[in-house]
User: Which sequence fits this backbone?
């Protein structure tokens, strides 16, 4: 996501990265507190999600897994992107 944004606007990519890093800080503190991702049941995975907003108001969805003490970000979805498909989890 960062690379795609950087090709279009370095400033936009930088502000997106700051918002993403702030969201990661929330995950580090309380990943178990966030809800199940919409596609978790269909994909048979214990996926969770957290939304974050950039300073310009765009909302992104982070899909992640919690395993023991680790949080693994699986994907970040931008506005209008569909739910994850099975091949995106490999």
Assistant:
């Amino acid at each position: 996501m960062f690379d795609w944004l950087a090709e279009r606007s370095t400033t936009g990519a930088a502000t997106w990265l700051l918002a993403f890093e702030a969201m990661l800080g929330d995950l580090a503190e309380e990943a178990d507190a966030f809800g199940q991702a919409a596609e978790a049941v269909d994909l048979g995975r214990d996926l969770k999600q957290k939304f974050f907003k950039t300073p310009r108001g765009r909302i992104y969805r982070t899909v992640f897994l919690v395993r023991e003490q680790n949080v693994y970000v699986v994907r970040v979805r931008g506005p209008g992107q569909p739910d994850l498909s099975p091949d995106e989890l490999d």
In short: The helical segments are 2-8, 10-30, 40-43. The chain is about 35% helix and 25% strand.
